[in-house]
UniProtKB/TrEMBL annotation:
CDD domains: MPP_DNA_pol_II_small_archeal_C, PolII_SU_OBF. Residues 310-487 form the DNA polymerase alpha/delta/epsilon subunit B domain. GO terms for cellular component: DNA polymerase complex. This is DNA polymerase II small subunit. Residues 196-256 form the OB domain. The keyword Thylakoid does not apply. Residues 74-118 are annotated as: Disordered. Keywords: DNA replication, DNA-binding, DNA-directed DNA polymerase, Exonuclease, Hydrolase, Multifunctional enzyme, Nuclease, Nucleotidyltransferase, Transferase. The keyword Nucleotidyltransferase applies. GO terms for biological process: DNA catabolic process; DNA strand elongation involved in DNA replication. Transmembrane segments: none annotated.
Length: 541
């Protein structure tokens, strides 16, 4: 067994492991079983597994006759290449829909976990592969150690991405120098020696002089970092930082070793260079926030959309497009729900939650069979409110056709070679409130911030309720070709470093709550993506 493979297994489980411990495992005759035994019996409070934590004698007594074997190869995903989107002005069609297009970024292929194959009437196969999804994998019950594991796993995953770009030292080593009052001495040129650390942001404040003061934590300790106001570009970057994200900092230590003066800030972000994906065929439609059951649900426009999917239009361009559609991807809030906000019962046409889903099922039964449907939940749906959310329960899915694929929120789905990361997008509320320049009117900017942080919901304990699972299911890895969100009821299309960003709007007109907060939705607009090029067309119904 290769040592790097053993290290990867422990990193995925949220642990670091010492070289001596790795050598002990890889030299054993049954390394796979030994790894499983260690992970089953390890003290969960540990962060680094040392050789002394591995009890070979106990393992061999419990499994006396194990054969030799090798650790399976761990597939690696390809990154995506850089491209920019430049919108083309909208053109009006003779039909009741308007069309506008944007050129596409490029992207990459992926290794798949689960696969469902569907054939249309012409015998063409539509592959739907679920790569990641919390459904049937949730383990949390809310215990203290689960929170520790969750943040440990987040730190491990994101710090490993940053570590490829920064040679960082443990924060504990800085604190030791600080306690010994030895500091970090100046180099020959008179400047303080350069130091790099990687940590989770636990505190952000502004000093009396207007500088940014950060507190960074890693599993070994915490340390203060100062971002000077005079460093304008760096200060602007620091002003967009949010709590609980993982970053790298390179800077100079003060002479007493008590503070790190930041000179460079490194986010997990996407690489600048990626591999070009081989395009597949056909098109995919992206939508969300249908809100069936609401008195503000736009039924006429929705039925016009169903007519388009069925090719019922005099516009030849739209008719040809409908024939090429292979997938319909729905990112949450299928129905309006019950008891989601005070006084909601006064804004409902359908008062029973299951009647809402029955009505939604009737609508989706009208989607032609050559189009395969993927649906994930949102905060208005009848699943747990804490994210990540599992797919709909059987009592709801049984109301729908068997050809619909239900997934959790978030979920990474491969559509015949195009990786789509579906996330309802509730964390956009947190990013709008915390990051300068991010607004509900341009939700794609919030999605850019997600991609830069390689995390769908970086802020813990704010508007989004996050369940402390052992694995952080919000880390963006592998890199998707398309990030699809909803929730905020406004359409946004863009791209960032080869990832196509889509926020798909809503099928609900302005609600009373939206009037109070002066939010104008952009309803009945549908992005259609060419899967061969990722070129996007926006239809207005």
């Amino acid at each position: 067994m290769k040592e790097i493979k053993a290290q990867e297994v422990f990193l995925e489980a949220g642990y670091q492991i010492s070289p001596k411990a790795v050598e002990m495992i890889t030299s054993h005759s049954a390394p796979n079983d030994l790894i499983s035994y260690i992970l089953e019996n390890v003290d969960e409070s540990l962060f680094v597994i040392e050789a002394e934590h591995i009890n070979i004698e106990s393992f061999e007594k419990e499994y006396p006759d194990l054969p030799k074997e090798c650790l399976d190869e761990v597939p690696c995903s390809n990154d995506t290449s850089t491209s920019q989107v430049s919108p083309v002005p909208s053109t009006r069609s003779p039909a009741r829909s308007s069309i506008s297009s944007t050129p596409s970024p490029t992207s990459s292929s992926a290794t798949l976990r689960d696969e469902r194959c569907f054939s249309d009437s012409n015998g063409q196969v539509n592959n739907i592969n679920i790569m990641s999804d919390i459904t049937d994998m949730s383990t949390c019950v809310g215990e203290y150690m689960e929170f520790v594991q969750y943040f440990r796993n987040r730190y491990t995953k994101l710090s490993n991405i940053i570590r490829g770009r920064v040679t960082a030292r443990p924060i504990e080593s800085l604190n030791k120098n600080r306690k010994q009052s030895s500091g970090i001495r100046r180099g020959g040129g008179g400047d303080y020696n350069e130091t790099s650390i990687i940590g989770m942001v636990s505190e952000i404040r502004t000093t009396a002089n207007g500088h940014k003061m950060l507190q960074l934590e890693d599993p070994t300790g915490s340390f203060p970092v100062l971002v000077h106001q005079a460093e304008k570009d760096l200060f602007e970057e620091a002003s967009k930082l949010v709590l609980d994200e993982v970053i790298g900092i390179t800077g100079s230590m003060t002479n007493d070793g008590s503070l790190l003066i930041a000179k460079k800030l490194v986010l997990p972000d996407l690489p600048n260079i990626s591999n070009r994906r081989e395009g597949t065929w056909g098109k995919a439609v992206f939508t969300s926030d249908i809100h069936v059951g609401s008195s503000t649900f736009l039924e006429e426009e929705w039925c016009g959309f169903l007519d388009f999917l069925n090719g019922k239009t005099d516009n030849e361009q739209l008719k040809k497009m409908s024939e090429e559609i292979r997938f319909l991807v729905v990112a949450g809030d299928l129905v309006d729900g019950i008891g989601i906000f005070p006084g909601q019962e006064h804004e409902l046409d359908i008062l029973d939650i299951y009647d809402q889903y029955r009505k939604a099922a009737e609508y989706f039964d009208q989607v032609p069979e050559h189009i395969k449907i993927i649906i994930s939940p949102g905060n208005h749906d009848a699943v747990r409110q804490a994210e990540p959310q599992p797919r709909f329960p059987e009592r709801i899915t049984s109301l729908f056709s068997d050809r619909i694929t239900f997934v959790g929120n978030p979920a990474l789905v491969d559509l015949d070679g195009v990786k789509v990361l579906m996330y309802h997008g509730r964390s956009i509320d947190d990013l709008v409130a915390s990051v300068p320049g991010v607004s509900y009117q341009e939700p794609e900017k919030a999605m850019v911030e997600m991609i830069k942080r390689r995390h769908l919901s970086p802020i813990y304990g704010s508007r989004v309720s996050i369940a402390p699972e052992k694995q952080d299911h919000f880390v963006i890895d592998p890199i998707p070709d398309i990030l699809h969100c909803g929730h905020v009821h406004t359409v946004g299309i863009g791209n960032y470093k080869s990832v196509l960003l889509i926020n798909s709007g809503t099928w609900q007109s302005q609600t009373e709550f939206q009037k109070r907060v002066n939010l104008m939705p952009t309803p009945a607009k549908v992005p259609v993506v060419d899967l061969s090029t990722l070129r996007t067309t926006l239809l207005q119904f």
